Amino acid sequence: MEARKKRLLAVVFAGFCAFLDLYAPQPMLPLLARVFHTTPAGVSLTVSLSTLAVALAAPFVGIVADRFGRKQVIVPATVLVAIPTFLAATSTSYRQFLFWRILQGLFTPGIFAVTVAYINEEWKEGVGAAMAAYVTGTVLGGFTGRMLAAVLSMYWTWQGAFVVLGCLNLAGALVIRAWMPPGKRFALPQRGNAEMILRHLRNPRLLATYSAGFCVLFTMVAVFTYINFHLTEPPFHLNTAQLGLIFGVYLIGAAITPTAGRWIDRFGHRTSITAALLFGILGSALTLLPSLLAVMAGLTLSCTSVFVAQSAASSYVGKVAHEGKGAAIGLYVMFYYLGGSAGAAFPGAFWTAGGWLACVLLIAAVQMITITLTRRYWHV
Fold first, then answer.
1. 0.70 exceeded by the pTM?
2. 193-199 long-range CB contacts below 8 Å, 24 or more apart?
């Protein structure tokens, strides 16, 4: 296999490993709520605390990657994520389980944030297409993690699901180590880390991009966390394995996203994210219909819109940040996963007050905010 294909596949595997574990418990949430005797809002901490840990660790990981290089962080981080994944299977209480989930989150930015920086540096042309290939890897990882977790917990044990996920992480680390070449265009930033971070935070285009990242993952996590509770109710009555099957819509997103990368390169980031999020609003509305087919169509539109929006936003960071890309991406990932944490926790109050309809209205409002920000501050 030629070196260029190996490099591209290495970032695809990095995306796969970054999202393999983080959201795997989503289809298991009704089951975990019963196992650990907690409520839907309480069991959502399984997702919100791990994503909060990602957000808190991301800026520091970006600084480390700016100091030591990209591959030198990505490979160890992929191995480190596997350790708490294995240990989560040993949990005898909800607090223990949450502890291991937090550790998973702390190590994940070493894969996610640093791979995005690597792509922005190493691809001289076609960054949008390369980023879309990476996002495709995250899509496949997200689908695989959720699907395995659902099926294995239904027909084996939920503990066994985490063991299998940990093994896949270790295998992915070996592939990344073998196929990802060391960065050829990596350079130490000219400014100090603190000064660089403050410089990024004073850039209105970057701030708008960070806010867009927050909103994008907020909608994704909100949809695919609370839809599970909606689909266990009438008229659907889905079980855990069936809930896992709904994430098959990710595969459609995986097929579309590489094409979206070419759209971004051709039509621009602003147009691409606007179109994507408008389709996302339509998708959320479709999930309100009392038809499983309509819900699946709506979820397909919702997840595809997020994948395209994420490709546009993450590649736009590299376009705006001309130095200290690791720190810039680290800040993006911090905001992105703060949005994911909020998307797991905040809609819980809306679910309690008005069920799935209230959640959908919240999600649509957040998507409109994202469109407004990017139309105002993104130049292309």
1. yes
2. 193/63, 193/66, 193/324, 193/327, 196/323, 196/324, 196/327, 197/59, 197/327, 197/331, 199/324
